Amino acid sequence: LTTSLIETEPVPGLDYSPLWPGECRSLVVTETISTCKSFFSSSLKVEGIPADAGDEDYCYAWDFYRQWFRRGTCGITSYVNCTLDSTGEPCDDIVVPQGKCNTHEEMTFFFEYCNVENQPLKFRKTVTEALVETYPMGGLDLSDLPSYECRNFTHSAKVNTCKKFFSSSLKVEGWRGNENGDYCFAWDFYRTYPYRPPVDSTKTKCDVSAKIKCIVTETGEDCDDILVPLDECQESLFMTFEFKYCNNNKEEPVYLLQNTKTIARIDSVKVAELDITSLAPGECRTKRVAREMNTCKSSSQHG
Fold first, then answer.
1. pTM of whole model > 0.85?
2. Which of 29, 105, 114, 268 could potentially form a cystine with 150 if both were Cys, beta carbons 3.0 to 4.6 Å apart?
């Protein structure tokens, strides 16, 4: 009954002698896996009876691991946004003065998912989900999504603005073509920290700055100096982008607005893991990202 499997084949070598209180055992196995399949899996099932319980007590544990293969970049996108019902303003800009929070603030969440592949997307319906906080939102159309088509829906929810933050997410999983095709995954996570101004705050002029620098990764040449004849262009040239942003105030911090407000992009792709916590007085931050760029295009945009 206690077994370990790779795919459907039992793994030899498990130690079945009694397992003592607080004891753990591990087994490492090297195995050949076919990457021509759409996924591979492994599992461990443990069953037993405590030594002092006779046949009256029963213990069980099971873990299952499945990995889907991705075949190159997947053109599936997901997007989440939010507005405050009382004002129509984006949730990014929400200001909640001390003592004026609401445990049931009405908000509207917008979810959009797109297939920019040249073949349909078949959803994994059990794991594709939209959440506000940890609560699932109904309304997703999970019929096969045709090529170059987007779907969206809105959902109203009551959010507790007395908490430090609130969140929403949209996770999309499926296969390009059919259930035996390539695995695709997209996930967007939206989190907002309501700004709570100090009770005795005085207005201070906000003085922030932003600057972008780009160099060719291999040569260190400034991107502004690149001369690329059309017959010598490259569809894949690594460039390094440097995003620098500063709080030039000498005494007051700057509370950065999040998500769609404080954002860095290369072409239309959002730069991940940008630090948008409050900027201390005089603080500067720099984010560097290397990205493959197509110099055969007429232009690229970053900001």
1. no
2. 114
Instruction: Enumerate long-range contacts of 18-27, CB under 8 Å, 24 or more apart.
Output: 18/51, 19/48
Q: Residue 122: how many CB atoms within 10 A of its CB? A: 19
What would the DSSP string read from start to end of 197-221? Answer: --TT-------EEEEEEEEETTT--
Under 8 Å between Cβ of 5 and 43: yes
Q: How far apart are CA 37 and CA 275, in angstroms?
A: 39
Phi, psi angle pair for 225, to nearest 5°: -95, 5
Classify the phi-psi angles of 51: left when phi > 0, otherwise alpha if psi is within -120 to 50, otherwise beta.
Answer: alpha
Token reading at 24: 């753990």
Longest dimension (CA), the chain: 81
If we measure between CA atoms, which residue out of 96, 41, 22 comes closest to residue 255?
A: 96
Measured at the CA of 297, the angle between CA 291 and CA 298, to 5 degrees, comes to 120
Phi, psi of 84 (to 5 degrees): -85, 120
- Residue 154 carries which side chain, given as an amino acid letter? T
Residue type, 295: T
Helix or strand or coil: residue 176?
Answer: strand
> Cα–Cα distance between 10 and 16 in angstroms, integer?
14
CA 225, 230, 235, 241: dihedral to nearest 10 degrees?
20
Residue-wise pLDDT tens digits, 143-198: 999 999 999 999 999 999 988 889 999 999 988 876 666 788 889 999 888 888 77
